[in-house]
Every structure is written in C-alpha cells, then in structure tokens.
C-alpha cells in the first residue's frame, strides 16, 4: 500500500489527490481515460476522499492499482498470433499456415487450443479472397491474410478474463457489460464474426494501430460497442498518425474495373458479402468487435501523446502546495483529422491553431 498522505485531502476532489500522490505517468493515465470510465468511477473521482488518513490512503491505493491496470492494458494491446496466408503468385490461391499454428477444436469449457482452419477457409470464401479494404487479390500480386478483429490471445480461454485488458474494460464499461462482451468474444473468437481478409500491408497497419477501422451505418452514424446492428455496414478509415500523401491507402473496393481511389481520413468502404450463392458463408464480422478494437486503439494513441503542462496543471488544480513535477515534460499536440490532412496548407493552419489554443503561441493582432 502507498504511504499515507501527509496532507489533508478532505476538501480536495479525489482525482486531484491521486494526481498529487502518484507519478506523473499515472496522473496522465487519469487525464487520458477518466472520460471512458463508468459514471460510478467518475463520480468517485469527483467526490472528496475520506477524511480519515488511513481510509484515504486505502482509496488512493485502490485507484493506483486500477490506473496501473489501464496503463498495462493499453501498452500491451493488441496481443497477436499468426495468420493464414494465400500464396501471392497470380492465379494461385492456396492456403498456407504459419509455422506453429495448428487447428484444434473448441473444448467443452470454451477453450480454444488453436485457430480454426474451417472458419478461416470460410472467411476466404466470404470475402472472395480479397482484402476488405483495398479490394486487392492474389491475382494482383498481393498476399491475403485472415486476421482476427479481437486478438486471439485475448479470448481463447476462460482464464483470459483475468487479463488486464478485460479488467480495464471493467473500469470503463462495468463488470456486467464486460462479462457479456467477453462471453461473446470467447464464443466467436475463431468464428466468421471475428475474421476478415486483409492485404498483408493493411494487416500490419491494422495490427499496429496505424489504421483504425470504425464501423458506421449507411447514414454515417457510428456503431458502438454495445450495438446489436444487423446487416451490411461501412468501415470508416482513420489514420491516428500523420501520414505523407504517398502513404494513404489506395483502394478498388466497390469501384468499377480499372478505377482506384485514395482513402483519406474519414473515407469509408462498404462491408458486404461478396457471395450470395447457396453454400457460401454469409455471416459478416460483428461491427461491435470493430468498435471495441477501434476505441481501444484510439485511446492507446491518445495516451501516447504527452499533454501540455498547462493541461495537467489545470487538471490537478492550483490548490496543491506542491506543483506537479513537470521536468522533462514536452508539449505535444494530438493528431486530428485536420492536422493529418493531405492538404499541407490546411494541416499547417490546423497545427498553428492548436498551438494558439494551447497558449504555446500568441496570435498576431
């Protein structure tokens, strides 16, 4: 347990007391994730801690544990396993298996001992052996891989419920909602609901969070984690990191033969079944799985940006007698749809506006 606080926090909101008592790194975790937490947790952080010094120390210690769980879960997300590969030689569509990955049936207790060859073969059929984002196929010289949306390592065994990832979701969504999500994930981890075909380059970007795929309806409304949306939908492409013009994805998905378009931030691609013939799988990936992965990757990227000194000082409140240790703290600005724009003038203007808004740059009269 942490050493009991030496100050009286009875008139200080709990979140401020935690910021004062912990490291700058954990203070940033509160700064980045408090808005994601359940209302009960948010209310507890806004309330005053117990007046009793020992009880106050216990409350702060419990929150330090929660913050370490969040920090660990975001740092390690996602965990991944191997992938199924189609031979990239034009005209050859053979399924190859990464060494060390063998298929085993699901046990009676919901434990998956490996990936399902049958489901991944069905995924290739459903997606017509093409990348769901670029539309590329082995005939184009591409290597097509079958990828998990919810990483296999996070839900292949009932004991995975004890991983920091799901404990973090307890803090964000509540235990009951997280239990429901975990049950669905472990049930469908090797199912068509959790599998997609991606070009190997896109798979790498998807795995590392360099591209985020957010599910939206045909009207552009975001589909959330707890949604029970049924039917076709779109995937909105988002780039959390700044990219050069040549790095934006080129796609033929949904276009006529010979047409290609650049997928800028916010552009979407339709997610529909290519095969409607009898005997072909028709189950689409669950949009809620995409929504969960997108939200965690977005939060992970947010937590990697260092907030300005002014932001943290404002969060902690100037009432503390000892200021936050801001040594080596750098001022960085989070990427937005404008700062990552392909238009250099628009991007530069957005960055300058951010600097002015943050107080790091004065606006000319």
UniProtKB/TrEMBL annotation:
Residues covered by the HNH nuclease domain: 131-213
Domain of life: Eukaryota
Database matches in Pfam families: HNH_2
InterPro entries the UniProt entry points to: HNH_nuc (IPR003615)
Listed name of the protein: HNH nuclease domain-containing protein
Organism of origin: Tuber borchii
Source organism phylogeny: Eukaryota, Fungi, Dikarya, Ascomycota, Pezizomycotina
């Amino acid at each position: 347990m942490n050493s009991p606080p030496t100050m009286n926090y009875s008139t200080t909101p709990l979140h401020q007391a935690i910021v004062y008592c912990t490291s700058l790194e954990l203070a940033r975790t509160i700064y980045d994730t408090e808005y994601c937490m359940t209302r009960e947790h948010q209310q507890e952080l806004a309330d005053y801690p117990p007046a009793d010094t020992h009880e106050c120390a216990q409350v702060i210690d419990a929150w330090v544990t929660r913050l370490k769980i969040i920090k660990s879960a975001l740092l390690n997300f996602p965990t991944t396993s191997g992938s199924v590969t189609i031979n990239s030689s034009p005209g050859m569509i053979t399924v190859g298996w990464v060494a060390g990955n063998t298929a085993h049936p699901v046990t009676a207790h919901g434990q998956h001992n490996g990936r399902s060859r049958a489901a991944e073969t069905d995924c290739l059929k459903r997606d017509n052996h093409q990348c769901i984002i670029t539309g590329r196929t082995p005939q184009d010289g591409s290597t097509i891989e079958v990828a998990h949306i919810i990483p296999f390592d996070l839900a292949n065994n009932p004991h995975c419920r004890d991983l920091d990832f799901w404990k973090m979701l307890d803090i964000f969504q509540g235990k009951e909602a997280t239990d429901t999500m975990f049950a669905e994930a472990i049930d469908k981890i090797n199912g068509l609901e959790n599998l997609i075909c991606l070009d190997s380059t896109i798979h790498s970007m998807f795995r590392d969070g360099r591209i985020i795929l957010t599910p939206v309806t045909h009207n552009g409304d975001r589909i959330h984690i707890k949604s029970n949306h049924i039917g076709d939908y779109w995937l909105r492409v988002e780039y959390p990191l700044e990219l050069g013009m040549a790095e934006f994805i080129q796609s033929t998905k949904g276009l006529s033969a010979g047409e290609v378009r650049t997928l800028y931030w916010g552009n979407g691609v339709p997610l529909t079944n290519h095969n409607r013939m009898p005997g072909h799988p028709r189950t689409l990936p669950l949009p809620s799985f995409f929504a969960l992965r997108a939200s965690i990757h977005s939060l992970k990227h947010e937590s990697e940006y260092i907030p300005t000194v002014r932001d943290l000082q404002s969060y902690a409140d100037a009432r503390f007698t000892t200021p936050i240790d801001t040594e080596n703290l750098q001022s960085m600005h989070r990427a937005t749809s404008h700062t990552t724009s392909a238009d250099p003038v628009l991007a530069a203007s957005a960055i300058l506006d951010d600097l002015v808004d943050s107080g790091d740059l004065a606006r000319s009269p």
